[in-house]
From TrEMBL:
Origin superkingdom: Bacteria
Protein name (Swiss-Prot/TrEMBL): Uncharacterized protein
Amino acid sequence: MFGSRSRRSTAKRAALYGLFGTWFGLTVVGQKLYRDATKRTGWDKLYLVIPDWRFFAPNPGIYDHHLLMRDELADGSLTGFREISSMEERTLLHALWHPHRRAEKTVFDVAAELLRYVGEHGLVRGGADPTVQLSVPYLTLLAHVTAQQHHPDAVRTQFLICVSGGYDEEEEPTMVFLSEFHSLGRPVARCVS
């Protein structure tokens, strides 16, 4: 009697291992490296029970976004661009405590959303779509840029979004979006003759 209980327990364990092994195997085999959301098949219903591991779904980030700004001074000259969204060098402590990561992630997400918005709306009659400047991501980045420290003589500011390969230093950063100049609300000093 004790031997038959042990054999049943072993058979149940083997069946369970077989079930989970098959499930894992189907999960590995079922991964589609290149997915086309417009094409659906009958097999897609299997993803209700077979996991579809899309980390950072649906499109993983392969570039770092950099937010830069420059100022126009009262005399009409421009300052150089300076980065205001630099990524902090990671340490082991950052695995446990990294409160600045939220600000970095916010800038990254808002910049990506602005680029998506521009990609969807494109150009209107040969010029930029004027609704871009009224979009939430544009206004969010503009508010962030205007809240930064500016040159004492600055009257207007402009921001630039660049993308780079991150740690891949062989790839040069690429400019992908340049904003209009926006007033900082400072009075312009005028010479009275």
